[in-house]
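Hi R.,

Here's the chain you asked about this morning:
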Amino acid sequence: MRLTPGPGRDIDLDDVDLFDLDLYASGDPHPVWDVMRAETPLHHQVLPDGREFWSVTRYEDVRRVLGDHREFTSERGTVPTHLGTDDVAAGVLMTSTDPPRHTEVRRPLGSKLTARAVKAWEDRIRATVVRFLEPALDGGTFDLAEQALLLPALVTGPLLGIPEKDWEELVRLTAMVTAPSDPHFRLGSEAATLAISHHELVTYVKDWVKERRDTGDEGDSLLHHLMSVRPGGEPLDDEEIALDGYSILLGANVTTPHTVSGTVQALIERPEQFDKAAADLSLVPNLVEEGLRWTSAACNFMRYAVDDVEIGGGTIPAGGAVVAWIGSANRDETLFPDPHTFDITREGAKRQAAFGFGPHFCIGAPLARMTLRVFFEELLRRFESIELAGEPEHLRSYFIAGMTHLPIVGQKRQTP
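And here is the predicted structure, written out as tokens:
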């Protein structure tokens, strides 16, 4: 998906298909969202197969849909790939569960992912980032998007308790879940890709749990911690642990690589922003927030209206599916003036919606923020400049906004 919109054009929303994969792989959805926010903040679309959904694109409407589980439930599925078929794991899978159960499972995990808790990981993360960047320092072509897919596993693998030998395969499987139509990850049809990846990920966690139970392994990783969670006073069974572990793996691996790639691309296209940040590393935390806003790697989430709901000047009927477009909310001009300008000094960048809102606000946000901050600190310390070495290739997905290829060449910074 293009992050810098192209020239303005006439758009007839009656002709727009928001599930058209070409719109994201090779097109430009931002002008479409601009028109939707201005003219049709509640948009209704019926797909050729009869499935229908409503869309909200303004920041405040997106916050309401994602933040209020009493009006908009997660318990039928939360991603557009589930549209028309309720999530079979609803009510068990953490991402497809409403409070109070969602809170009971999430709270003990969240205690291990607070900003204070993850601070202890900073030195280890910095060493990981330095090793990650090392191959790009020789002046050759480095495909950042391709390599960055593994970066979250390098950072979170030990935190999750996942052996290093399994990281690459788990990254491939999580990519299959979130971009099942992309030719880099597809195996057969989209449905087959989803089925295979879901089965293999859940089976992996089940086997992981069984091995720890059999050996009496009582470690301190997130997955170990999940084995001790007791929502409602009862421990999770192995199927529930496997589904929630699957959810954690997806959250850990999916968005950070695309935030890295998209933000680096923005800096390449705006060398004055790169130079400004390199001259003053205190700007990096705000650079991270602007990067999260700019890339909106998790482009949307879906909910279902519990009852008839008036929103955006219209009504979503009870049971209606509603897609909250985070990528649009983060370009809402009422909150982010001149929204299509990438500005690392933007005031209010931290209001970005990339981590969601409400009960499902990203549990790993403190870790993601720290990882991104460390990444850009080390990038700016090591490189005098970065240039594109080929055309970016965008992910074929209407759920995740990202790239599969971003070839770059960096000029190493000379130390005094």
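One quick note: Residues 190-215 form the longest helix (26 residues).

Cheers,
M.
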